[in-house]
């Protein structure tokens, strides 16, 4: 590797430039997110039975669904929770089971269990589950000073929600705030008793009187006309004229026992934004989707969606005042977190370069050492892109951890090459001999650094999902740094570090300058007291082991 780099310096430069281009392209194409993508299949089953106590939900519905869906192939573990009127069962699958397979299995078993669930249970909703997407990415707010809460809810639930879910990666499950429109029949008990009727009589009569049934077709000449029996009233007030029952030969109408009103369901939540009652839709992401990209698409498409809504309901004079906006944008926090990590990594590289310049005292040698840092990081970005990971807090954390190691390998090579130059060798011979001398120790140190991340392979569950990208990014950067230190660094030294380095005593002379003198003095003292120093190091090691055991055990 070293001989090849010295014989073909132009090839080394071309490879470095290619790595630069690939790294930049990979950085632009790799999605950014706060956490790594959760690639383990997980499915949740949500079942509703309004008003049912939690104990019954658990015993009669939740446990049945657990038993049935637990037969799915590849189930690792299950989680379940029962509340009043609703239960949630989460099935987590082992690695290697695709989301499509998991969804099809769980859906099949959940639907098969419907026969055994209590009558009145709403069919279960089966959907993908992502534990990293439990918090909404943003809130899409619907506001209009001219509309009441019921009108806002209707627009958000029946029209806007469907349009938002057409955006790739978006889940818009519910609407918060507003009032859900309901046609309610208010019945007076005394009047029912006077006519000898019950509430069930009223309910059955209203259901029979409020239908739309296709009655076939009729052919008249060349025309084929469809016939409908339409008993749907045009106005709510007309339902009051619906007959309930014949009592002593006289029809009892709805208005005789009560009234039907255009009302709303009992409001269970109120949303206030800027001190005004409004409506919002929480936006979640589907498994594998990108937070920043989803929020960006929503912000981009909201004006088009608003225009479509206004065109579809152009007859409504209140629609021009409708406003769609984004509140609680979580993508800003993600961008800020990633920017902070990038800034920290950049500052670390600059500070490392400054320290190298202080101790080496040569701008040329400092330049090549600092140049190795971004090249190794770009190589890691290429690996992250082709591995299907994202630029997130864990991968950036791994790169930040590796920066110090990236500098060490290049410094060792450069310093040894300069030592050979000061011995009177030509730059080419010094680059060859100096790099050969330290190649094996650097290889051993590289393997040691990479081996540290091997235990991540034995992790499972959420820990593996979080720390595997960190280990991969750091390992790729360290290996790339080793290759750069064995190829680019000696080629650079052979071409740009001249024999004048032999006279450079400020960087690292025969005595190492003031730093060398200080080190020699300290080393002499340590060698004189070598036994106490070894015993003190052993005592510090034992104390650290005891401290670790106490902390972990506590």
Summarize the structure.
This protein has 554 residues and is of the alpha+beta class.
Topology:
Blueprint: H1 2-7, H2 9-29, E1 42-48, H3 54-69, E2 75-83, E3 86-93, H4 99-112, E4 125-128, E5 138-143, H5 149-165, E6 170-171, E7 181-187, H6 189-195, H7 199-209, E8 212-220, E9 223-230, E10 243-247, E11 250-253, H8 254-257, E12 258-264, E13 272-273, E14 276-277, E15 279-285, H9 291-312, E16 323-327, H10 330-360, H11 363-386, H12 393-422, H13 427-451, H14 461-496, H15 505-508, H16 513-528, H17 530-553
Antiparallel strand pairs: 1-3, 1-4, 2-3, 5-15, 5-16, 6-15, 7-12, 8-9, 10-11, 13-14
How would you describe what is shown here?
The chain is elongated, with a radius of gyration of 36 Å. It folds into four domains: 2-36 and 333-510, Multidrug efflux transporter AcrB transmembrane domain (Multidrug efflux transporter AcrB transmembrane fold, Up-down Bundle), CATH 1.20.1640; 39-129, Multidrug efflux transporter AcrB pore domain (Alpha-Beta Plaits, 2-Layer Sandwich); 181-264, Multidrug efflux transporter AcrB TolC docking domain, DN and DC subdomains; 513-554. By secondary structure, the chain is an alpha+beta fold. 56% of the residues lie in helices and 17% in strands. It is built from 17 helices and 16 strands.
């Amino acid at each position: 590797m070293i001989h090849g780099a010295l014989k073909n310096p132009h090839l080394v430069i071309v490879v470095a430039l290619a790595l630069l281009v690939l790294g930049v392209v990979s950085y632009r194409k790799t999605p950014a997110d706060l956490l790594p993508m959760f690639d383990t299949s997980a499915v949740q089953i949500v079942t509703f039975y309004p008003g049912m106590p939690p104990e019954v939900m658990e015993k009669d519905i939740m446990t049945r669904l657990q038993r049935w869906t637990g037969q799915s192939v590849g189930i690792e573990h299950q989680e379940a929770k029962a509340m009043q009127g609703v239960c949630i069962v989460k099935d987590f699958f082992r690695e290697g089971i695709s989301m499509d397979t998991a969804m099809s299995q769980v859906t099949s078993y959940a639907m098969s269990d419907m026969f055994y669930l209590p009558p009145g249970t709403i069919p279960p909703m089966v959907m993908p589950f992502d534990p990293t997407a439990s918090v909404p990415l943003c809130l899409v707010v619907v506001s209009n000073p001219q509309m009441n809460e019921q009108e806002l809810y209707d627009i958000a639930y029946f029209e806007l929600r469907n349009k938002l879910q057409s955006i790739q990666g978006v889940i818009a499950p519910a609407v918060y705030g507003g009032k859900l429109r309901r046609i309610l029949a208010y019945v007076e008990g005394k009047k029912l008793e006077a006519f000898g009727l019950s509430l069930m009589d009223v309910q059955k009569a209203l259901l029979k009187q409020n239908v739309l049934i296709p009655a076939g077709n009729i052919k008249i000449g060349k025309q084929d006309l469809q016939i409908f029996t339409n008993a749907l009233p045009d106005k709510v007030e007309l339902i009051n004229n619906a007959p309930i029952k014949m009592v002593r030969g006289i029809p009892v109408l709805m208005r005789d026992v009560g009234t039907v009103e255009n009302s709303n369901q009992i409001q269970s939540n109120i949303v206030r934004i800027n001190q005004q009652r409004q409506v919002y839709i929480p936006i979640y992401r589907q498994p594998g989707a990108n937070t920043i990209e989803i929020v960006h698409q929503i912000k981009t498409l909201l004006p088009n969606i608003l225009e479509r809504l206004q065109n579809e309901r152009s007859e409504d004079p209140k629609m021009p005042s409708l406003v769609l906006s984004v509140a609680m944008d979580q993508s800003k926090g993600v961008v800020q977190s990633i920017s902070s990590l990038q800034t920290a990594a950049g500052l670390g590289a600059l500070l490392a370069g400054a320290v190298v310049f202080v101790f080496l005292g040569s701008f040329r040698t400092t330049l090549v050492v600092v140049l190795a840092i971004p090249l190794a990081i770009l190589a890691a970005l290429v690996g992250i892109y082709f591995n299907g990971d994202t630029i997130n807090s864990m991968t950036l954390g791994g790169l930040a951890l590796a920066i110090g190691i990236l500098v060490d390998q290049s410094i060792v090579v450069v310093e040894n090459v300069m030592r050979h130059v000061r011995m009177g060798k030509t730059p080419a011979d010094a680059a060859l001999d100096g790099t050969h001398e330290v190649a094996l120790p650097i290889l051993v140190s590289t393997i040691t650094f990479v081996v540290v991340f091997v235990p991540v392979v034995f992790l499972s569950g959420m820990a593996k999902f979080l720390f595997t990208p960190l280990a991969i990014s750091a390992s790729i950067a360290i290996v790339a740094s080793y290759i750069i230190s064995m190829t680019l660094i000696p080629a650079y030294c052979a071409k740009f570090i001249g024999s004048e380095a032999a006279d450079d005593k400020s960087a690292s002379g025969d005595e190492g300058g003031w730093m060398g003198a200080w080190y020699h003095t300290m080393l002499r003292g340590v060698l004189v007291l070598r036994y106490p120093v070894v015993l003190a190091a052993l005592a510090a090691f034992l104390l650290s082991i005891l401290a670790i055991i106490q902390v972990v055990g506590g």
